[in-house]
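Justification of computing resources. Each target in the renewal requires a structure prediction run like the one illustrated here; the chain below, 457 residues long, is used simply to show the kind of job we budget for.
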Amino acid sequence: MKKLNNFLLILLPAVLFFSYFPVISLGETATMHLELSLPEIWLVVFFFTNLKNLKSLVKTFTMPKLIIVSLFPLYASLSIFWSKNRLRAILTAGLLWLIVFAIINISYHLKTADKILKHKIAQSLLISTTLVCIFCWLQCFLDLIEFARTDTLLCAGCTYASFGFPHPNGFAIEPQFMGNLLLAPTIFTFYLLFIQKTHHRVKILLLAALFSSTLFLTFSRGAIYAFIIAVIIFIVFFVRKNHKVLLTIPLICATLILTLTMQGIFSQLSPTSDTFYSGITKSIHQLTLGKLDFRPQQEAKSNDDSDNNTKDSNFSGYVEESTNRRMNLSNYALDIWDDSKTQMLFGTGLGSAGIAMSEKYGFDSAKEIIQNQYVSLLLELGLISYAILIFVGIKLKLRLNPLVLTIISAYAITLIFFAGLPNALHVYLLPPLIFYLASKASLNHVSAGPAESKSTK
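Resulting structure tokens:
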């Protein structure tokens, strides 16, 4: 069983990238889609293979600490009784328990794990991220030669038809999640490159460039903003330890310029009327929320496009509607939360946001989610949920290393832009994994290739 658990831990970084493809569809109700993804299957398998550890967990972490950790999922489970979406509440609560159980057991296994296991997990993270990044770039090239979306796995709004250049979603449901998945691996490569001693500096540098450029390529503003802020935090934490960490800035600038250049090339090559220059300026306009506008007023792709073989892309720049929709959903949710003191304290119940907004504002679909995890939590579980989280944080007195704090800060920012557990399990499972990789293991031999460290007797 120990070998199986070690294998599952090594497999975890790769599994997390398959957050939506492949997915097992179990049907749908009026309020939710019933789907099963690989990360969710991993959670279930990991749960059953670790049930025998319950006594060891109590001995290692003590019962009081385990009770404290269980407070939030316990309260979320109790909210099933007043939720207007019982089925979604039950499934979400079950997922919360699986996540908490997985985090505890990841900590239990890696606390005393040998260096070889940690090396293999780190290599799994780097190798799987590399392969997925390559797939993301391949998605873009295939889209330009008009492969069907069923073959490229691109989401409906990800093709060249939207902005003139494609932006990949990998095996995630949309680019926002793909960009989010790349945050931890990219920051981890910066740590290996500038802080941890390694014999594979050139390899790690190339990986850092590949990961960060792919993150920019996803064109996810939430992930990109979080990435930039996380890099600033990373530099502040580590600049005293190694001044070379400042080289992160030119590295990011170089990968951003590379990505903008490729978006310009994609625009020029796409069947739309976009050009190299319009593609770059359109990207800048969207990423800066319309603040920087260098777009040409009128520009033909070429003199040969005077016929009707080309067409305009759907968006000519910053899509204000995307930002406004997120803000409106948050405003609707806060308005509902403020309806009564009881609702402010306890919320409308886990998983009930869609029904609550549909009832009050007449949304066509009760499947709607709030694109902000903090507001979603407030609406569904009320102020008590925040009080519990603060209490748990104070009681546990976690001493997180600067690398993990940087990654958690990045995730904390991205949660402003999306919500929903099923497609974002990496937010909860990668930090404990990387915590033990960085704080307990010497990663001198980590590379994107096979493990080179040798075990000792």
